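Q: Could you write out the predicted structure for this multi-component system? I'm mainly interested in how the pieces pack against one another.
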Amino acid sequence: MKFFVDTADIDDIRELNDLGMVDGVTTNPSLIMKSGRDIKEVTAEICALIAGPVSAETVALDAEGMIAEGRELAKIAENIAIKVPLTWDGLKACKVLSGEGRMVNVTLCFSANQALLAAKAGATFISPFIGRLDDLNIDGMELIADIRAIYDNYDFPTEILAASIRTANHMKDAALIGADVATAPPAVIKAMASHVLTDKGLDQFMADWAKTGQKIL
Ligand code: E4P
């Protein structure tokens, strides 16, 4: 499973990228707002740092506006994936932009039917939002499994990009189901390294080592 980082924070992206943990980046209007940066400026910096797809989201609500904004965002760098929402207009924009050979990430997906339409419209990525469904007591992971089954039934090339990931368990479950990509905030990716027994075991080893009075260096 590829790891995308869900942030527009350059320092966080750089730290994870140095560890080889970043296959791509996703941003959205809320993350751009949080960064306090200009969308084109910060996106260009991310694209220069990361070789993989960097999603930049359109904000127009009509297909024509999304297409125009998508073409403008795509000028930033070769690795831009244009993000459009899963609305009827978003699907129209997806069809046109993907027909021009551009990467398109269809976002705000909350049902398997929506994902089916996005694949038919030529989406490069479909972004089902796990956490926001879980918030409503609807199993977000079940949606990932449904989309996996449908895409496999018909060999759709659209990649499932599990989004709105809130926990390390979401990452594990998305990988078990076979999501192609998961995008997560840096803190969630770091949390995957934590285990209480690792900490406990390390404490014990350190205490015993101190008793030996030895040094390695
Ligand atoms: C990424 O593409 C999505 O915009 C993001 O994962 C949404 O996450 P949230 O539901 O935590 O805002």
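A: Regarding packing and overall arrangement: The CA atoms of residues 124 and 158 lie 5 Å apart.
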